[in-house]
Amino acid sequence: MKRSNNRDWTLETLLVHGYEREREEGSGSRKGVPTVQPIYTSTTYLHYNAETLDRAFDTSLSEEKGETAFVYARQGNPNAFALETVMAQAEGGVGAIAFGSGMAAIHAALLAGGLVAGSKILAAKDLYGATTSLLRQAFVPLGVEVVTHDLYRRDVGDIIRAEQPDVVYVETLSNPLVKVIDLDVISAAAREVGAVSVVDSTFTTPFLVRPIEHGFDLVVHSATKYLGGHGDSTAGLVISAKRSLLDQLRNYAIILGAMLSPFDSHLIKRGLQTLTLRMERHCSNALRVAQFLQEHQAVAKVHYPGLAGHPHHELATTLLGEGRYGGLLSFELKEQSRDAVFRFMDRLRLLLPATTLGDAWSLVSYPAMSSHRNLSEAERRIIGITDGCIRLSVGIEDVGDIMGDLERALGG
Ligand SMILES: Cc1ncc(COP(=O)(O)O)c(C=O)c1O
Q1: Average pLDDT, the chain
Q2: According to the model, what pLDDT value does residue 21 have?
């Protein structure tokens, strides 16, 4: 059985067919080759003889020679390897490493990026809360200088040149106000000052943007969200543009014990097969819902880059493409109070009030209660998150049903 070279495939085809069947071909026996990669639960691997075992220790740590062998599951497993290979191709990187969660992926990316005592990281002010906590609680005590700024500004290049950081860390879209980052300006300025550039692309996925093509060194994902897409697996990924960073990442994954399990690797990889279809629907539904909310009498403001009035609408159209603004939006109730938001949440019948995003079903969260709970009301106000602000991860259900549930909950 001959298979074509997948380097020419489009993202849609690559994500459906993945990689494993090519690899499994070699193991074809009279019993046939499975169309789905088996889940390898083994913690350790046997080799033909001591010499091949010896070589396996080398090749398990580096795919440079085009061969990968498995020795011990914490150092990698065939299911994680298949996922990593597909995601590296999807993002246009030299390789990827799968981690046990998005946070584990971010931790390893920051270490691989060179955060050691005396180094400096410049990070966006409104990062995902746990990422800010990771910087403050794990890196500051080690002697890393953490500087935060509004990096969604037009003069972000000047900020980077003035700060001269070792690492620049941003998110493609901000949470929950869905601001859009200027990847090209940031990567160019980071390169100028010799900083490693790292971006969390969880909200955009390779369907909307491939940050390595915009000059970034490391791309991070919480695969728990859109990549898995079904709310049943926790995982993270880092894709590297450079071999040296990839080797560091693999090393940290092994010594931190942060590798993704075979079963979760299988689930995320299965999710990837429908990623492009789901993302198309997330985007079209979110645009309709944003337009609906904008017209609603109980709503004061909608934050969605697909709306012409959003401050980053033009940048979003250039970066992500016409009509492709992602599935995440937030809106503010006219009645700016916790009571009004709680009433809204309790009236929902279809949308789930649960604290995640990117699942097939629509999800509602209240930033003041969840992602930004640890900030004071004053701190939240500085970054623009009011007490009436609600985040909506628009799912792939029928858009009429989604709007119907919103209408009922808004008291229409
Ligand atoms: C943008 C972003 N990055 C990273 C994470 C952390 O991912 P995980 O929960 O898989 O550790 C999250 C979680 O919500 C997130 O929203």
Answers
A1: 93
A2: 57
Model pLDDT, residue 352: 98
Beta carbons of 240 and 249 less than 8 angstroms apart: yes
Q: How far is the CA of 222 from the centre of ligand 1 (A)?
A: 5
For helices 102-112 and 243-256, angle between their N-to-C axes, nearest 10 degrees: 130
The best mutation among 110, 198, 224, 227 to test binding of ligand 1, ranked by most ligand atoms within 8 Å of the C-beta, falls on: 224
> From ligand 1's centre to the CA of 104, what distance in Å?
10
Give mean pLDDT, residues 338-348.
Answer: 97
Reported as a single tens digit per residue, the pLDDT across 198-228 is 999 999 999 999 999 999 999 999 999 999 9
Closest CA to 301 of 324, 329, 338, 342: 329
Distance from residue 113's CA to the centre of ligand 1 (Å): 19
74 carries an active-site annotation? yes
Of 23, 74, 343, 408, the active-site residue reads: 74
pLDDT at residue 60 above 90?
no
pLDDT the model gives residue 2 = 43
Question: Which residues have a Cβ under 8 Å from the Cβ of 9 and sit 6 or more positions away?
Answer: 17
Residue type, 303: H
**Can 40 be counted among the known catalytic residues?**
no
- Transcribe 334-358 into DSSP letters: SS-SHHHHHHHHHH-SSSB--S---
Residue 349 a catalytic site member: no
The atom number, within ligand 1, closest to the CA of 127 reads 1
| Confidence grade of residue 1 (pLDDT, cut at 50, 70, 90) | very low
Q: Spell out which residues line ligand 1, taking CB within 6 angstroms.
A: 101-103, 128, 130, 171, 175, 200, 202, 222, 224, 234, 236
Closest residue by CA, ligand 1 atom 11? 102
Q: Which among 126, 166, 200, 405 is annotated as catalytic?
A: 200
Tell me the average pLDDT across 32-58.
90
d(CA 349, CA 156) in angstroms, rounded, equals 42
Active site residue 31: no
Asked if the model's pLDDT at residue 13 lies above 50, the reply is: yes
Query: What domains are there in the chain, each with its CATH number?
Result: 6-272 (3.40.640.10), 278-409 (3.90.1150.10)
Q: How confident is the model at residue 62 (pLDDT cuts 50, 70, 90)?
A: low
Convert 108-120 into a string of H (helix), E (strand) and C (coil).
HHHHHCCCCCCCE
